[in-house]
């Protein structure tokens, strides 16, 4: 019997991507607003894509250190269910974004080793959800979406924070079941692991990922 694991498919760029994620059983779909990303979409693109997202599937906008001008334009144009802050936003900025836009905020936290773990508690005090991702390599162009996993055993004793969280970073159809088992997470997020080429989603990999996560 399928489990209640919730899956977010991030970096969707086409109507076919949205259809693939929704029909596979994703709970969240993510749109990336970051110019350096191969998954970047414009506000106009996202507005059109959002229309295709079925009711019950949450639309998440991923932004990186976005200013109010950009977020004002984004939230005015696109019907969103959540904002994902994937840059170096401070806890104060997370609280400010939450208050200004009235949307749930998910803060991404990069983990490389145990010294990164205290940030989880810090942001748990202000965000609605956390995205626990691999820390990007120094000088990486992207703060996420690099297909890198971190040492999941770092989370082994820390399964329960006060707010919901998702596991991300280098997840694929082949390793997601093991990641769920090792970390105890109930939510997973993937981008490059369901692509046939960089920035190009593969409907078969999306279906396999969701099935494996829920198996
Ligand atoms: O996907 C991107 O291009 C991206 C750009 C900037 C910040 C975050 C990004 N992606 C997020 O990172 C996680 C992990 O990605 P991956 O599965 O390791 O490729 C992804 O789920 C997005 O939330």
TrEMBL record:
<comment type="pathway">
    <text>Amino-acid biosynthesis; L-tryptophan biosynthesis; L-tryptophan from chorismate: step 3/5.</text>
</comment>
<dbReference type="GO" id="GO:0004640">
    <property type="term" value="F:phosphoribosylanthranilate isomerase activity"/>
</dbReference>
<protein>
    <recommendedName>
        <fullName>N-(5'-phosphoribosyl)anthranilate isomerase</fullName>
        <ecNumber>5.3.1.24</ecNumber>
    </recommendedName>
</protein>
<keyword id="KW-0822">Tryptophan biosynthesis</keyword>
<dbReference type="InterPro" id="IPR044643">
    <property type="entry name" value="TrpF_fam"/>
</dbReference>
<dbReference type="Pfam" id="PF00697">
    <property type="entry name" value="PRAI"/>
</dbReference>
<dbReference type="GO" id="GO:0000162">
    <property type="term" value="P:L-tryptophan biosynthetic process"/>
</dbReference>
<dbReference type="InterPro" id="IPR001240">
    <property type="entry name" value="PRAI_dom"/>
</dbReference>
<keyword id="KW-0413">Isomerase</keyword>
<dbReference type="InterPro" id="IPR011060">
    <property type="entry name" value="RibuloseP-bd_barrel"/>
</dbReference>
<keyword id="KW-0057">Aromatic amino acid biosynthesis</keyword>
<keyword id="KW-0028">Amino-acid biosynthesis</keyword>
<comment type="similarity">
    <text>Belongs to the TrpF family.</text>
</comment>
<dbReference type="InterPro" id="IPR013785">
    <property type="entry name" value="Aldolase_TIM"/>
</dbReference>
